[in-house]
Specification:
Layout: H1 2-6, E1 10-16, H2 27-30, H3 34-50, E2 55-62, H4 65-74, E3 77-80, H5 86-100, E4 105-109, H6 118-128, E5 133-137, E6 144-149, H7 163-169, E7 173-174, H8 181-184, H9 190-199, H10 206-212, H11 215-218
Parallel strand pairs: 1-2, 1-4, 2-3, 5-7
Antiparallel strand pairs: 4-6, 5-6
Helix pairs in contact: 3-4
Length: about 220
């Protein structure tokens, strides 16, 4: 208990798109399961973040009542998305996080990390404490899956497209932490989902992935926890 109390605390902001916009690149493969898959992936992301030792709270930003209700049931603090773009949504969530806990560090986490493991996120948050502003690139080294700032530092997310380059050019430190594949494996395509499946999907995503990717192609997988 003492060790847990000594851990620096983080607020994690997770943006969740409206279901009509979510996972459109998976529409062909997921078919009628696309919306359910989007909710499941976000649920596994939020659930894993909430179990991370350094995470005090998860602030979800969404304009869709379906994931809002589901993620609130999991323990997230939900605020409304003003629908002015991803980075605006993240800033709204960060402002709410600072209002709730002004002394905590604030991080942004993409909502499509269905294999996320709490202990790997913990490694990232520990490393991020060494810098005022930092980020983790995605598995393709093009985008970004995590962005964080120390308490009191301006929150300046630059997500979307080639965000790794934008975060670097803006002065954020790229975190090169070993052993965090689940933090870097976001899911936009069916191949991404297969890669996440090989890491071990969370319990919300796994049943749907088993329908979308039959065992003969994706292999039998068990949830990580």
């Amino acid at each position: 208990m003492l060790k847990a109390m000594q851990l620096a605390r983080w607020s994690i902001v997770v943006p969740v798109k409206t279901l009509i916009r979510a996972k459109t690149r998976l529409a062909g493969a997921a078919g009628p399961y696309r919306a359910a898959l989007a909710v499941a992936v976000a649920s596994d992301t939020v659930s894993a973040a909430l179990r991370c030792a350094r995470v005090a709270r998860v602030v979800v930003v969404t304009a869709d009542p379906v994931p809002a209700e589901r993620l609130a049931e999991l323990g997230a603090h939900v605020v409304d998305d003003p629908d002015k773009g991803l980075n605006t949504a993240l800033r709204v969530g960060a402002a709410e996080a600072v209002r709730l806990a002004p002394g905590d560090a604030v991080g942004a986490l993409q909502a499509d990390l269905p294999a996320l493991r709490p202990e790997e996120l913990d490694k990232v948050l520990e490393a991020a404490l060494g810098f005022e502003e930092s980020f983790v690139p995605d598995a393709a080294d093009v985008g970004t899956t995590f962005y964080g700032v120390s308490p009191g530092v301006e929150f300046r997310p630059r997500f979307g497209g080639e965000s790794r380059a934008r975060h670097l050019s803006g002065g954020a430190k790229e975190l090169t932490v070993e052993g965090i594949p689940s933090v870097r494996r976001d899911v936009d395509t069916i191949d991404d989902l297969r890669q996440a499946m090989s890491l071990g999907l969370g319990p919300h995503t796994l049943p749907l992935a088993g329908v979308i990717i039959p065992p003969s192609r994706g292999g039998d997988q068990a949830p990580w926890g």
